[in-house]
């Protein structure tokens, strides 16, 4: 176990090197002079020269890369060209929004998907099972951005139950004091705003959570079916244990292992896939920030955002792998 | 269960016939096949059925009209018939899906075969590239690539196919690793067959069934991701009737919610296309990879 953990940890180093190389080259693969592309054709030569020297574009490539990595290691991601704010400042302000959304979406998927999958497996080949199977197929085929628009049309425009976007209503925004940046948490200390925060979170979380929900339902169902056909489950039944005990104590514990892995991997994907959901719901997170960066040709923002998401993604996957090894003593890693 | 039920009915069953019979037993496979054939026919026959020029198609008097007997999917902000645009959009989406998958499949499979067969430094290098590509969520990677090379349908297609390469590398490599030890491959090596022949004649056929299954499923994913890029304005550009770009027009033009037919139908067709290839892929898995059959 420990030697596996050590090797798995070491394996991250070449990947991090690769990520830094790719994100660095990003700026240099842009057709034409990056400084001209960023400032636009009409910018004066002095401004272009100034930006070139600020980005270090006149130095040799390897020197630029070393500088880039040096800054990264010191935690300096640079400055936005569009609004002159440092990338760190903006990241600090944006990441809680994305994490809060991803956590809510994961909760939505887990709370519905796991019971749904278990029920489908226990009542195999019934109407409920067919419903679960069809839903999990439909769910993974849904375009997220379309689902978001449909939900807004239904719940915000037609029924007017929920707001169509943003994290707060305008009047609440005027009095709301962000403390941690996680508004649900902050809302606990400002009870008059709490409900408004939650109402704004529901539709984006449903949008972002539907694909993981479909995947979780499918995986839980499959894992449960496999476990339920095992000998020890038959033994438990033969001993005369109640069906409820067989399912909860014997089957579920073992079936949940792959499910936990999928939850972890999906959470990582959600952080990166939130771009579409955040765009539709004007959600001020990392995804919409990267997207604005692309539209403004603000490449330091795009670089900073992409590298942040990739880092989180790598760490989440690492944690999932390690916890898998920790949770399942049967697995022997060579 | 009766033993006779699992025995082959006739002795002259070829693997192909066996696969077809298994496929026909899979209801998801059959539904997927019917849907996919329908979509392909729609794409092929669209120009015959309703000739269309997206650049000149305008009818300002009939802007944002709801669905009616005459215009079954209604019209958009420029008075364009949504039905016509949607069926012509199937031409774009299917082409994009097929080309993107063909690209990633060819590159990924070749790299995977090479990595699994030659081992050593080249395997480490290819493995490293795979790990880096997998270190980014795929949608984000595709978006970042298009941000560099510029928005267009072709660039979106290439970006999406790059994100899918690692799957094929891993698939082909794992098959080769187990197949290279088989007797007939060892025999071919002992007889002095050149590497290229062993790779393409002996190892590739082993890797094909799982790759075909993966490719079918990937067509769905590629369609979805390209549409997502189109929706963000980073893929197909107006006035092309690409489904994602149509949704983008409706969303950014501010008429998606007041005239919902402009967004419902393009999205519905994206979903149907993805669903068709997912179902078809499931059916093919049952037919070609019976070990995975549950």
Automatic annotation (TrEMBL), chain A:
Transmembrane domains' residue ranges: 12-30, 101-122, 134-156, 197-216, 255-281, 301-327
A GO CC annotation given for this chain: plasma membrane
GO biological process, one term: transmembrane transport
Alphabetic keyword roster: Cell membrane, Membrane, Transmembrane, Transmembrane helix, Transport
Protein's UniProt keywords contain Cell membrane: yes
Keyword Transmembrane helix among UniProt keywords: yes
Its membrane topology: Multi-pass membrane protein
Highest taxon of the lineage: Bacteria
Coiled-coil regions listed in the entry: none
InterPro entries: BPD_transp_1_N, MetI-like, MetI-like_sf
Subcellular location(s) of the protein: Cell membrane
Ranges for domain ABC transmembrane type-1: 95-324
Family (UniProt): Belongs to the binding-protein-dependent transport system permease family.
PANTHER family: DIPEPTIDE TRANSPORT SYSTEM PERMEASE PROTEIN DPPB-RELATED
Identification of the protein by name: Peptide ABC transporter permease
From TrEMBL, chain B:
Pfam families xrefs: BPD_transp_1 (PF00528), OppC_N (PF12911)
Entry's Gene Ontology BP terms: transmembrane transport
Location(s), subcellular: Cell membrane
Family matches, as PROSITE patterns: ABC_TM1 (PS50928)
Record-annotated ABC transmembrane type-1 domain positions: 90-281
Keywords recorded for this protein, A-Z: Cell membrane, Membrane, Transmembrane, Transmembrane helix, Transport
One cellular component term from this protein's GO annotations in UniProt: plasma membrane
Record-annotated membrane-spanning stretches: 31-49, 92-118, 125-149, 261-281
Membrane disposition: Multi-pass membrane protein
Family: Belongs to the binding-protein-dependent transport system permease family.
Protein name: Peptide ABC transporter permease
């Amino acid at each position: 176990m420990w030697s596996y953990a050590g090797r798995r940890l070491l394996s991250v180093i070449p990947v991090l090197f690769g990520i830094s190389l790719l994100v660095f080259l990003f700026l240099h693969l842009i057709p034409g002079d990056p400084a001209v592309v960023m400032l636009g054709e009409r910018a004066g030569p002095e401004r272009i020269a100034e930006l070139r020297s600020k980005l270090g574009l006149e130095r040799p490539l390897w020197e630029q890369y070393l500088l880039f990595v040096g800054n990264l290691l010191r935690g300096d991601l640079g400055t936005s060209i569009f609004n002159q704010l440092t990338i760190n400042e903006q990241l600090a302000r944006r990441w809680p929004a994305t994490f809060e959304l991803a956590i809510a979406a994961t909760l939505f998927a887990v709370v519905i998907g796991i019971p749904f999958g278990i029920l489908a497996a226990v009542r195999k080949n019934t109407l409920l099972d067919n419903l679960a199977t069809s839903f999990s197929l439909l769910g993974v085929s849904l375009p997220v951005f379309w689902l978001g628009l449909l939900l807004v049309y239904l719940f915000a425009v037609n029924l007017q139950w929920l707001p169509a976007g943003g994290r707060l209503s305008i009047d609440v925004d005027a009095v709301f004091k962000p403390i941690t940046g996680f508004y649900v948490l902050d809302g606990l200390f400002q009870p008059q705003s709490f409900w408004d925060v939650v109402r704004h979170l529901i539709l984006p979380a449903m949008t972002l959570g539907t694909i993981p929900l479909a995947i979780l339902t499918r995986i839980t169902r499959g894992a449960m079916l496999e476990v339920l056909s095992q000998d020890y489950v038959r033994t438990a039944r033969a001993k005369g244990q109640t069906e409820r005990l067989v399912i909860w104590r014997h089957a579920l514990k073992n079936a949940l292992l792959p499910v936990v892995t999928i939850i972890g991997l999906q959470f990582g994907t959600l952080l990166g896939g939130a771009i579409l959901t955040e765009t539709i719901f004007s959600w001020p997170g990392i995804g919409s920030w990267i997207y604005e960066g692309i539209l403004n040709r603000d490449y330091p923002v795009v670089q900073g955002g992409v590298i942040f998401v990739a880092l989180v993604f790598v760490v989440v996957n690492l944690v999932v792998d390690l916890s898998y090894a920790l949770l399942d003593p049967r697995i022997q890693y060579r | 269960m009766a033993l006779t039920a699992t025995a082959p009915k006739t002795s002259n069953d070829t693997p192909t016939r066996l696969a077809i019979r298994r496929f026909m037993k899979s209801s998801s496979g059959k539904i997927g096949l019917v849907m996919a054939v329908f979509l392909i026919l729609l794409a092929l026959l669209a120009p015959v059925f309703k000739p269309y020029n997206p650049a000149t198609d305008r009818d300002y008097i009939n802007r944002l009209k709801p669905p009616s007997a005459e215009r079954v999917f209604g019209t958009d902000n420029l008075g364009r018939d949504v039905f016509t645009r949607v069926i012509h959009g199937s031409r774009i989406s299917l082409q994009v899906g097929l080309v993107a998958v063909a690209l990633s499949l060819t590159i990924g499979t070749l790299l995977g075969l090479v990595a699994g067969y030659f081992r050593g430094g080249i395997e480490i290098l290819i493995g490293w590239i795979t790990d880096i590509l997998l270190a980014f969520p795929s949608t984000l990677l595709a978006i970042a690539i298009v941000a560099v090379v510029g928005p267009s349908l072709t660039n979106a297609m290439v970006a999406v196919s790059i994100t899918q390469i690692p799957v094929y590398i891993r698939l082909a490599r794992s098959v080769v690793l187990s197949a290279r030890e088989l007797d007939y491959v060892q025999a071919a090596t002992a007889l002095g067959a050149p590497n290229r022949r062993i790779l393409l004649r002996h190892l590739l056929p082993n890797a094909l069934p799982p790759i075909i299954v993966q490719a079918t499923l990937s067509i769905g994913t590629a369609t979805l991701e390209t549409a997502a890029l189109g929706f963000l304005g980073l893929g197909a550009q107006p006035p092309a009737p690409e489904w994602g770009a149509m949704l983008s027009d409706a969303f950014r033009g501010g008429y998606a919610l007041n005239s919902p037919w402009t967004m419902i139908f393009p999205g519905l067709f994206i979903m149907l296309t993805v669903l068709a290839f997912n179902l078809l892929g499931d059916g093919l898995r049952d037919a070609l990879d019976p070990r995975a059959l549950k």
